Amino acid sequence: MFLHGLATQIILNTDRLVIGKVVSLAAVTVFSITVRIPEVGLSLLSRVTENATPAVMEIVTHESSDRAREQYRRVLLLTSTLGALAFWLILCFNQWFITLWVGPSFFASNLVLSLALVLMVQQTIVRSMSFFLYAKGNSRQLSLMSLFEAGLNIALSVFLGQQIGLPGVLVGTLIASSLTSSWYTPYLLKKYLAIPLRDSWSSILVPAAGISVAGGVVYMLVQWAQVVLPNTVLLFGLLGCLAGVLLAAFTWLVFLRRPFGPYVPARLQRILLVVPLS
């Protein structure tokens, strides 16, 4: 557990070091401001599984494998939907926020932001998977793979950063993760917990695709509003709240209401359109 956490911190901090060496020191400031909100999103999303760790350990250790698989699908569905929701909300409003805050010159590019958001979602999902391995006591192999990923990340980020600049650093991080923990973690889950790969992919791809359709529509509407309406802090706040409510309502009704409805307090079930259990 300690080695994996150390490796994760190395991966998260490597990008700034590489950018300062192979791009420029000025680019580090622009990069840090652009990806600040995605990093906060990664931290908040990670707390979903961290808070559930005691319950996961109890289920994996003392209950049946079917029960463990059921909870695995549920946790992965929750983190995948929240990750996709955060992806589109940040993509819609991050550039606008930075422009109002410090000026447009401090926003790197939509490409850099999109790569940072993909990395945010990827790391969130991998962490959610790894908690079940820690609960089972199979952390050594994953921790060693995480350290290997950190070394590969540095090598690829330096090379690609020299070739294509700022986006190359994030591309190197994504490639390193894809070649290591992103496939190795589901493999270990199948080996030690008998969780089929289709359980992982269905819990990730289905909500990601559905939320992306709704998120794409909201993104186009926000871009249109910025062109047509006055660019003010008030408009930013109103559209941000409206987009958040609409996407959150869509995510709840389509993907989360059925599996998580039974956990909603009785006084809120009518408000959240939860069908009471018979």
UniProtKB/TrEMBL annotation:
InterPro entries on file: Poly_Biosynth_Transport
Membrane topology of this protein: Multi-pass membrane protein
Keyword match Cell membrane: yes
Keyword RNA-binding recorded: no
Record key words, sorted: Cell membrane, Membrane, Transmembrane, Transmembrane helix
Superkingdom as given in the UniProt entry: Bacteria
Predominant location category: membrane
Signal peptide: none
Subcellular localization(s) per the UniProt record: Cell membrane
Ranges annotated as spanning the membrane: 75-98, 201-222, 234-255
Name of the protein this chain belongs to: Polysaccharide biosynthesis protein C-terminal domain-containing protein
Lineage: Bacteria, Pseudomonadati, Bacteroidota, Cytophagia, Cytophagales
